[in-house]
Amino acid sequence: MAANQDDLSLEQQRHRKLKRYENRAYREGFRSIAGLDEVGRGPIAGPVVAAAVILPRNFFLPGVNDSKLVSPSRRREMALEIKKGALGWSVTAVSARQIDCQNILQCTRAAMRTCIEELVPRPDMLLIDAVQLPNLEIRQYPIIKGDSLSISIACASILAKVERDAVMESYDGMFPGYGFAQHKGYATRAHCLALERLGPCTIHRNSFEPVRSMVTRPDWFQPVLFDA
């Protein structure tokens, strides 16, 4: 019993540290504080996904952290708990084709803006993981490595990661052989070997290397989801 109480006390202390940016915003008079994060800027296939979360002031979720530090099964459980406990949340994906037409930073910002527009209640303060959103009327505060320093950003990172993983797992069935369910579109050795064998498919980012070099080869072909 004592050990459990000690663990709970340590977790409560960690939560207090994770809430320091939120609590500072409350002291400054803000009342609807949203955390934003994205997942998928680095992969060579699939969408970039952003999420926004507004948490109640007393929100407590043991183990919440940067999504990369939480196991896949626990992330899925946490995502359900976050959605249930949040005052508001939203998730937005921007496709590989849109990324090719613009660029990854602009698409990340676009996804975050859509998340903000879809949030109810409307936020009056944004805590964002590293990204600055220009020409935005809402007060914002970018935090480097915010997903490990702010509870709101950490929860947003979990929602974005769970959503993107689910999307990539669905693509694994549509485009067999690439291993999307395993590497989630990142340029692992197995993924690159599959690219050499199969060529890029329609969810690969043609503006990212090594896909970019492949699609300019004269022998390049693009597998499609359905036969003509």
Question: Can you tell me about this structure?
Answer:
This protein is an alpha/beta fold. It folds into two domains: 2-171, 2-Layer Sandwich (Nucleotidyltransferase, domain 5); 173-215, no CATH class. The chain has helices spanning 2-18, 20-27, 72-85, 96-101, 104-118, 151-174, 180-183, 189-198, 211-215, and strands at 33-39, 48-54, 88-94, 125-129, 139-143. Strands 3-2-1-4-5 form a five-stranded mixed β-sheet, sandwiched between helices. A hairpin with an 8-residue loop joins strand 1 and strand 2 (48-54). It is globular, with a radius of gyration of 19 Å. The protein starts with a helix and ends in a 13-residue tail after the last helix.
Which terms would index this structure?
alpha/beta, Nucleotidyltransferase, domain 5, 9 helices
